[in-house]
Design a protein that fits this description.
The structure is a single chain. This protein has two domains: about 230 residues, Rossmann fold, CATH 3.40.50.300; about 60 residues, Histone, subunit A (Orthogonal Bundle). The protein is an alpha/beta fold and about 300 residues long. Strand 2, helix 2 and strand 3 form a beta-alpha-beta unit. The longest helix has 24 residues. Helices cover about 55% and strands about 10% of the residues. The radius of gyration is 20 Å and the shape is globular. It has a six-stranded parallel beta sheet, with helices on both faces.
Amino acid sequence: MPELPRAVCIAGATGTGKSAAALHLASELGGEVINVDSRQVYADFPIITAQPGPKEQLLCPHHLYGFLDTTERINAGQWVRRTAAEIAACVARGNLPLLVGGTGLYIRAITRGMADIPPVEPAVAQRLAEEYARQGPQFLHARLAKADPSYAARTHSNNRHRILRALGVWEGTGRTFSWWHEHGRAHPACRALLLVVRAELEELVPRLDRRINAMLEAGALEEARRAFTKCAAPKAPGWSGIGCAELYRHLCGEWGFEQARTIWLNNTRAYAKRQLTWFRGQEDAAWMAPDDLAGMVAAARAFLKGESAEEK
């Protein structure tokens, strides 16, 4: 196996200050920022998904932000291939790749490798989609629970894409998603130091509330309205993210503005809680206080120095 490039991953729950930490590390260590957030890929929602702004992106190179249309979907495998190429190009330029975001699946895939799961046959995918529409999500989720209890327990009963994909793979290969994740894993794209920005949920919620207010003041509703005029399809992948989904229902007239805002905050809180739970399960994570920028730089330098020593 060829030598893996080195990278530093700055991760954590939404609203913990990852972007500010990344800019500091980029300045101190000569880094380039690479997105590892599954929602910040959409071009129509830079405010709602909290993408780095133009001023931030002028401070150092940023990659894989806002490149996808609202109607397009990107899966983890496609994202890994793009990210691996960005990491290699960054290293070739003599810079340090800084992986920044909070999507656990992306972080795990790029730093540990991901399961090389075969595609679902189109005829099988079509049949399962028709059955989902006819029978409903609970029926298909129950079938998944019988075939693959472990994966079903991690998949919400309304997550159509994951349920249909898992069932399609099960029917096509005779192996569960859980089996593929354990036995079909490809090599990682880099060797990374995982720095997790620490925050307790109780202190994070008021910060998330203020951040939503700041997004709205910066034009989040107007941003959603412009996207709505371009694509009003309710199942368009870009609309599925938190913030986007709630404003979509407001623009459709289903919810009043205050209701949409309240549900946006509640869903953001629930997502942050899931993120914190996932990161607590990562034994190799180094937890850092949000304002401990010097500590993050020191940890990164020690990691890079240690790697260099091993190469000699």
